[in-house]
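Per reviewer request, we include the raw input and output of the structure prediction for the construct analysed in the revised manuscript.
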Amino acid sequence: MPSHVIAFFVSFVVSFFLNSYFTFKVKPTLAKFLKFPLSQAVNFAASSLFMYVFIEYFGINSMITPILAVFVALPATFIVTSKILKKESVSA
């Protein structure tokens, strides 16, 4: 369990910095880092919901549903991540 927790945290931090520098080309800040877990919450919620729907309502094999759920969860996660990481606009 300690290895799992450490690996999760390291991958989370690396994901934040890679998304900041390479995907969205923005400067990472503490405020953005603290909001970043929302993207993972959206990913978890969307993939879980669609796995449930695919299995319970469409009868798709549970070995396949995680792959299908990624196709739904990934765009949702990308949108949330972009809103968190994109440069803040100056309010008038």
